[in-house]
Design goal:
Elements (H helix, E strand, L loop, with lengths): L2 H24 L2 H16 L9 H22 L11 H9 L23 H11 L1 H7 L4 H12 L4 H8 L3 H16 L7 H23 L2 H7 E9 L10 E4 L1 H10 L7 E6 L2 E6 L7 E7 L5 E7 L2 H5 L3 E3 L3
Helix pairs in contact: 1-2, 1-3, 2-3, 3-7, 3-8, 4-12, 7-8, 7-9, 8-9, 10-11, 11-12
């Protein structure tokens, strides 16, 4: 066996582990595979004879590659994909187009550039890790996510995690601690009145999600207050500027035109109130936060897609 054959064989023995680390860090199987491939290229170009612990060396390299990808992702302005909220709503407001049940929204397999992913494999990975955990991880900063994943999920010593982050061991401990609080934090038990309020919110949010999935315009309109206001940050709007829409008909039509995403959306508590999150394969992209009145009507919808705002949200997924 040649040296290159031995190196390739040794790398394959670690591939599944590296893929698992990269997936938990990146939340995307496609990105994880890219990180693993880059790790192989770096190994092939290194002097393997000087590597004493191949597994540790590879884990460190794939973590650094993933960290660079996370940082680039956070810095890069995400481009609107398909008919997401409130892009579709803006179009409906301009054209008054009749809503369609199928919508033109992006399906589950679409990536950031509209390229198809492998949704079956991504779903298997997401289920094995826990979709709720992936969603919460996506709200962390890159450094917090890496510190938590490497230490808490893969038992890497803080000294080694610190070397990846190029920070002190104590600073790395603090990063992991902040991430741990976010991941494991739970709200206090609500009072009876608060519990009833949450139940009402959840009922309305669930009905909204069901109507969106089913393309039921009349049901959506019935859930919305006549003067409902939808606001969206610049990341969620096609114009790249914050948007504001009003009126039950316009907002309902927008929901239908974006119904392609509804199948991949889930109910959630968003900062303690009922809402909906769109997080394919656990990668949080859009949050809909609702305000519901005592008459069980939605009076306001806040559409959040800005990465900085998403990271600041406390999210807990709920069963439909």
């Amino acid at each position: 066996m040649t040296d290159s054959d031995w190196l390739a064989t040794a790398f394959e023995e670690h591939r599944d582990h590296l893929r698992g680390v990269a997936y938990r860090l990146l939340g995307s199987m496609t990105d994880a595979d890219d990180a693993v491939q880059e790790t192989w290229l770096r190994l092939a170009g290194a002097d393997a004879g000087e590597v004493r612990n191949l597994g540790g060396w590879l884990t460190t390299v794939v973590a650094r590659v993933a960290l660079n990808m996370l940082r680039a992702r956070k810095l890069r302005r995400e481009q609107p994909v398909g008919d997401s909220w409130p892009v579709a709503a803006e179009g409906a407001a301009r054209s008054g187009a009749t809503a369609r049940a199928g919508g033109a929204g992006v399906g589950a397999g679409d990536g950031a550039n509209g390229q198809p992913r492998d949704p079956e494999d991504e779903a298997v990975l997401a289920d094995s890790i826990g979709l709720a955990l992936l969603v919460v991880l996506d709200t962390l900063t890159p450094s917090e996510r890496l510190a938590f994943v490497l230490h808490d999920m893969f038992a890497m010593p803080f000294t080694e995690v610190a070397a990846v982050l190029d920070r002190s061991t104590e600073a790395t401990r603090q990063l992991a601690s902040r991430a741990r609080r976010r991941v494991r934090g739970a709200p206090a038990t609500p009072s009876p009145d608060r519990a009833a309020d949450l139940a009402r919110q959840r009922e309305v949010a669930s009905a909204f999600l069901s109507a969106s999935r089913g393309g039921d315009l009349s049901a959506l309109v019935a859930l919305l207050d006549a003067d409902v206001v939808l606001t969206a940050d610049a990341q969620a709007a096609a114009s790249g500027r914050p948007a504001r829409l009003s009126g039950a008909a316009v907002v309902a039509r927008g929901a239908l035109l974006a119904s392609g995403r509804a199948a991949q959306s889930q109910l959630a508590l968003v900062d303690g109130a009922a809402g909906i999150v769109y997080a394919p394969a656990g990668r949080l992209q859009v949050v809909l936060a609702f305000t519901v009145n005592d008459a069980r009507r939605i009076t306001a919808i806040d559409v959040i897609a800005d990465p900085h705002r998403l990271r600041g949200l406390h999210i807990a997924l709920l069963p439909d």
